[in-house]
Amino acid sequence: MTAFDWTHAKAPDLDAFEALAEAAHRALPEAFRALTGEVVIGIADFAEDEVLDEMGFESPFDLLGLFQGIGLPHGGAVPETGRMPNRIWLYRRPILDMWAESEDTLGAIVTHVLVHEIGHHFGFSDDDMEAIERAAADPEPPADDQEHSS
């Protein structure tokens, strides 16, 4: 096995991180993704000070992500006028910090944060969220892609 050449490697910037998050979101099971409606994924280096204060975090590295909004099961049949779209915030620097101390891939950690932000908002158990993460990591192939024996 050849070692990765880290000489010129850099942490993903906000744009690359957003692309990684969008891909991770698309890989989540459709039924789970549907809970959020038309969610917007926002990327920032850290949560805003007001958010950290409101949630009682002392360090900006303590918050990896945040779900803001009302999911489809909690919303009314008719959307309220002026309501902002659901948003999931992923905080790049805390996630990169977690990645640096983990054996997981960055993609797996981003998926984990996405699943937990959505899952906690809707009251999913940790077991439910672990099953969703496994499904996102190992999606079943579509029926027409399966091998046929003759």
The averaged pLDDT comes out at 83
Instruction: State the order of secondary-structure elements, H for helix, E for strand.
Output: HHEHEEHHH
Number of strands: 3
CATH topology tier name: Zincin-like
Q: Major sheet, described briefly?
A: 3 strands, mixed
Radius of gyration: 18 Å
* CATH class division: Alpha Beta
Tally of DSSP helical segments: 6
Detailed description of the structure:
The protein has six helices and three strands; from the N terminus they run ααβαββααα. The radius of gyration is 18 Å and the shape is globular. Residues 140-150 have low confidence and may be disordered. The chain has 150 residues and is mostly helical. α1 (14-26) packs across α5 and α4 packs across α5 (106-121).
Write the layout of secondary structure elements.
Blueprint: H1 14-26, H2 30-34, E1 40-44, H3 49-55, E2 65-68, E3 87-91, H4 92-100, H5 106-121, H6 126-137
Parallel strand pairs: 1-3
Antiparallel strand pairs: 2-3
Helix pairs in contact: 1-5, 4-5, 5-6
